[in-house]
Specification:
Residues 12-73 form the FAD synthetase domain. With 210 residues, the chain is α+β, with helices and mostly antiparallel strands. The chain folds into three domains: 9-66; 76-111, no CATH class; 116-208, no CATH class. The chain has helices at 17-27, 49-58, 76-80, 92-101, 104-111, 185-189; strands at 32-36, 62-66, 116-120, 128-129, 133-137, 149-158, 161-169, 173-178, 194-198, 207-208.
Length: 210
């Protein structure tokens, strides 16, 4: 069963490319890596994808280099001012740009799936819960929320259960409103560590700016 590890960036930021791969192999027990063709790593981005392949071979790791996926939407001009390396490829820069605009259909096209917010549930005393509404501060999110607004056709994922809802994002909090009374009672009553929030069907998704 694969394990998920979190590494403090401050502990690896000054490693050379060789030291970084050595750490993956000897300390973390990594057996293979996947990276994009424009991937750079090591202190001051000294290593590139070809260096990664060579070092992985030296340390007995499998290395898989993935070609860039190009974005069919023509918004490169808007992104050039943000990222000078922008070549029209799908990237985290483009995803963040689409989230900043609140364009969830575009986000889904870039990701190849719906955007999923991950909400940490370990600090539930900071949450407020009503019969069909759950609110939490943005600081409890593990990833990036879209711009402030009202998002329809969303869903909350609890184990194998899917609860339809809409999402309201404001300056400080995220609010989940389900369509049935007491739908969120199972959320606060269970010992959940995280909560997944899917941002709807690309065909139906919309946003109303608050």
């Amino acid at each position: 069963m694969p394990r998920e590890l979190q590494i403090d960036f401050s502990k690896v930021r000054y490693l050379t490319p060789c030291q970084f791969v050595e750490k993956l192999s000897k300390e973390l027990g990594v057996r293979g890596v996947v990276a994009g063709e424009n991937y750079r790593f090591g202190y001051r981005a000294a290593g590139d994808a070809s260096d990664l392949v060579k070092l992985c071979e030296e340390y007995g790791l499998e290395a898989y280099i993935i070609n860039s996926v190009m974005d069919t939407n023509q918004i490169s001009g808007a992104l050039n001012s943000i990222d000078g390396k922008e070549r029209g490829q799908v990237s985290s820069t483009r995803v963040r740009y689409a989230l900043h605009k609140g364009d969830m259909k575009y986000v889904s096209e870039l990701l190849g799936r719906n955007h999923r917010l991950i909400l940490m549930m370990e600090d539930q005393e900071r949450f407020t819960s009503e019969r069909n509404r759950l609110s939490a501060p943005k600081s409890c999110l593990l990833n990036l929320a879209p711009k402030e607004g009202l998002y329809e056709n969303c869903s909350v994922l609890i184990d194998k259960n899917v609860i339809p809802c809409r999402v309201i994002v404001d300056t400080t909090d995220i609010h989940l409103e389900c369509y049935e009374v007491d739908s969120f009672s199972c959320v606060t009553s269970q010992d959940l560590k995280i909560l997944g929030i899917d941002f709807g069907s690309p065909e139906l998704d919309g946003v109303q700016i608050l």
